[in-house]
Amino acid sequence: MPAITMKVNGQAVCGDVEGRTLLVEFLRDKLGLTGTHVGCDTSQCGACVVHVDGKAVKSCTTLAIACADSEVTTIEGLAKNGKLHPMQEAFREHHGLQCGFCTPGMIMSAVDLVKRNGKKLDDETIRHELEGNICRCTGYQNIVAAVKAGAANM
Amino acid sequence: MSETGTGIGARVKRKEDQRFITGKGNYTDDINLPKQTYAYFVRSPHAHATIKSINTAKAKKMPGVVGVFTGEDVANDKLGGLICGWMIHSKDGSPMKAGPHPVLAQGKVRYVGDHVALVVAETKELAKAAAAAVSVTYAVLPHVVDVADAMKAKAPVHDVAPDNRVFNWSIGDEAATDAAFKNAAHVTKIDLVNNRLIPNAMEPRAAIGSYDTGTESYTLYTTSQNPHVARLVISAFHGLAPEHKLRVIAPDVGGGFGSKIFIYAEEVACVWASKHIGGRPIKWTAERSESFLADAHGRDHVTHAELATDANGIITGFKVHTKAAMGAYLSTFASCVPTYLYATLLSGQYAIPNIYAEVDAIYTNTAPVDAYRGAGRPEATYVVERIVETAARELKIDPAEFRRKNFVTAFPHQTPVIMCYDAGDYAAALDKALEMSEYSSFGERKSAAAKKGKLRGIGLSAYIEACGIAPSAAIGSLGAGVGLWESAEVRVNPVGTVEILTGSHSHGQGHETTFAQLVSDRLGVDINNVSIVHGDTDKVQFGMGTYGSRSGAVGMTAISKALDKIEAKAKKVAAAVMEASADDVEFKNGTFTVKGTDKKMAFGEVALSAYVAHKFNSAEIEPGLKEGAFHDPSNFVFPAGVHICEVEIDADTGVTEVVSYTAVDDFGNIINPMIVEGQVHGGIVQGIGQALAEGCVYDKDSGQLLTGSYMDYQMPRAADVPNFKLAFTCTPCPSNPLGMKGCGEAGAIASPAAVMNAVTDALGLRDVAMPATPQTVWKAMQPMKKAAE
Ligand code: FES
Ligand code: FES
Description:
By secondary structure, chain A is of the alpha+beta class.
């Protein structure tokens, strides 16, 4: 089993992985970072989204070994110095979550889409950009409102 | 009531959110126990087959394998089978025909995905690899997947039901209804299919079962909406262990929508098998493909309905015949869904003097069907609102006015199908919805759309639902195996903070916030000094769980009753300390005062006094401040409302877009409008999903599930739905002190009919099948196009 190192939420970590170990398995099972969820097995739902070297990826479809020496940010690493990220704050403020299961992936995707599309977003752009994230609870309306508000505050 | 602050009616931000937005939620799959092993299930690849043999020898020798279990082990251990907890009797008086449902298949498999063997190993991967090495020889039998064909199937799913019919049940007065049809001026007929849905809570089901060899007791962590009911069933019916030797914990649960009410084979198998591997914990987390195959599905009705009207457009009779698929086994509450949760709502919001409905419940070689968001009530609303709309069109009466003419206007109103509506103002909701949706100017929008090549349609849905199923004695007489009360315990700590132990369970509904709002409002305690404890049978007294929009009307009423007792006890303590008569003590805004004096004590001081017990005679007043209550409602609650949907259909591609959606709902008094709106949004989108996108499809020839992943089963995504216009009307519910109804299912109940009425209006057709995908709509449009050419 090869040992890999990477930086996760600013901390250097290392661990043994098999060639087939997925990034999400490494995060959840090896590092105990269970905020990143698995909601499907076809790379469709986005519950598993994390940032690798600043880009949103689906960690259920990424091999851990392919992320060796990368910088990974998970939902646990988004708040800085005890202060919530504006996107996290916006999800609470706008009731953008119910059961919370899709939420980590939604927030990580939202932060990424703001980086790519800017802080001034219309509903259509947000809805289109969230095509890789499924939420069964909220009906999306409050998620869209949260992303818009979170973007403005980023 | 104020929308600010933290009391009843306030838009309080949710207390539970902090852990979810920071990734600190605690879902079952996030939990790992020492020495944990992993489970993987061998499932049937066939829709219907006899098991000739199972060879586990090779799998048992695979690396890391800890145990392999089959139906034979289950039988040898006398582990009871899965049960259906609601007895339905057929018209002829015979009991429903429940076939056996063993935890692991015995002799036969009955649907693709049926659980055949359990493999336990050191890792998930090893368990999966070993499962592939379990060799099962099958003799394939003829199968049937469509409810419409199932009564003529070649090989019955269960021997007890040779024609696959579980029961043939009826409600209402057939002769009186027939007479109404004889005298009718007009009869409207409609044939409808309510498409089968797969619930798809985003968190897949999961379980960790363990056995403590020291205390000889079991613990099951599981994704459950009702852990106490799970414990009861696993104890009393599976016979695993008495209740005091079984702890069931449902931690954070990632959505349920009904699918996590039921007691499933996988969870029972994990906790059972733990004892057989020396007590090591066994963890199972469903892959999404397994959720598709083996979670209980929803809906799947085929219905013929007829509506009789007189010369003035007044409804005089309603006749319904429904074939309801049960799947291959009767799931936990399957039998009550197409009966008491469905046909009892067939009066809709209308004063219909004569109703008769007959329901055939039918086995098919498919996953079991049970309650899914709305459970029976969306199916009822779909039938009522589609036929009412169709009748209005046939009679050339405006559909809104046709509804208004027939509304129930006086309460209480006894329908011919059991329900007694207690309060409502249906016209008020209709007026508001018509105004908000700009109904009167629809024609202009239709013409404007036509210029862009779009067909625009508008559809209404005036739904009613019954939530908070009760009273227990009444449902017991109708066949329910349980009572549907709820319990609460209020523990005031010596420092004046409060813990609420509730039998309700939150899996997205926000109880940690709304329940705390009630307590804060009543006791004047800061909302942050109230915590809600739920989901653990070792912590909470018995409870019935959360489904059927019952946690407000039933669960919170139990809390409210316990708070009454707390207040009464605290008054006694305060009276003793302030040397006054308890009758003279008043309690307001968290302060106890003595009438006519300036004596006062804060709630926290009284709590401390109750615990130190220095200032009263303990022979008269017991120390401490803790009270419990059970609440059994005297009636259902009846949320109702009017939803109006507008769609635009692309005439070339058949793509349907929901362009406007208005929902006006009467939920009685509301604790937190922000949360209620969220529930409505989510429900509407599930209903739009049913109408336009979602449909479970089994292949007729092979019996295989064709829609087994998010690649084939279209879940609504953000870009598929618009923002919704919401408003509330309010007629407080008279049967509970908080005046609450229920809001969890309304969206999913109302919306399919609203959307399909809009689609059929746009196309000028009587019916279009759900889901109205672009392909279905495009096909439906072709004859019209040909005619126009
Ligand atoms: S778990 Fe990664 S997309 Fe669903
Ligand atoms: S909040 Fe439950 S899936 Fe999105």
